Amino acid sequence: METQKEILLRCENLVKIYKVADLEVVALQGLDIEAFQGEMLAVVGASGSGKSTLLNIIGALDAPSAGKCVVAGYDLSRMTEKQRIAYRRAVIGQIWQQPGRNLLPDLTIRINVESPLTLRGISGSKRRARANELLALVGLADMAHKYPTQLSGGELQRAAIAVALANEPWLLLADEPTGELDSVSAHEIFQMLRSINQKIGVTVILVTHDVAIAELADRTIAIRDGRTSTETVRRDAPLQARAQGGQQRSAVVGISLDTHRESIVIDRVGRMQLPKEALEQIDFNGRAEIRILQDHVEVWPIQIDAPAQISAGDSDEISKTKPLTSRIKGI
What we know:
This protein is an alpha/beta fold. It has helices spanning 51-58, 81-90, 99-102, 109-119, 124-137, 153-165, 183-200, 211-214, 276-281, 315-321, and strands at residues 7-20, 23-36, 40-44, 66-71, 74-75, 92-95, 171-175, 203-207, 219-224, 227-234, 260-264, 288-292, 296-301, 326-329. The chain has ten helices and 14 strands. The strands form three sheets. Strands 6-7-8-3-9-10-11 form a seven-stranded mixed beta sheet, with helices on both faces. Helix 4 (109-119) crosses helix 5 (124-137) and helix 4 (109-119) packs parallel to helix 6.
């Protein structure tokens, strides 16, 4: 019997509004998301969709304008600045895209890894032992005395992973950690994050634009216009090769449907986002007619006369004769 996964992170109706001069920019508008203990979750979306804003809120670098975000029992919408600092030191580890944000250039790699432990008052011998352990974990044991300027891009991100893990965090946040690396180094860094996720059980939330990277995560959440759009989950076992048409890919993220299953996310008040491709292909004019049947819901462009009565058995035949029909099954 499969054990129920424990929820480490839950965001409900999360809103973030930035004020720029006399303008208000809505970065998140009612976003819902969950992350389970021990999983690797990829977050994807176009530039400006709200990915980095979400990570800043989870990392307690920013506060939500409305809604709730709870991580490991900490309600981030109700914390003082002192509590936020303690939370960042004990619960969160962060890896940034720019190596300069991860490491202090005037310190050796080992001292960089020791720094978070120094701030927590850990003794020197324990700091050194922990730093050496982590540098061995990321494959940099023989570079402990080097400085950041002496490392390659991939080595810098390995060191950044070690720094982020120094405090034994519950949750590791990685904002485009492979964005400035070549494809080979990017794959190596992701595989290292995946290995660490599986070995020590730390939950990883990874923001990426790389479909090949997202494809290897347990789940992928797509964000569009500040809301959760779709969820793509790795299948327990890959589907057998399709007889015709070759490999099919999910409509939003572009991940193989042979190894993953993509679904539209319906939030707690019933809102959902149709894929952009569906809106381009079908002229809804901002409205749709909904038909609730026994085992699925049908979404019809308002200008098409939907049949007054449809039986579940006839729905497939009707969909073949109505080229502008978009159906959402399994609801």
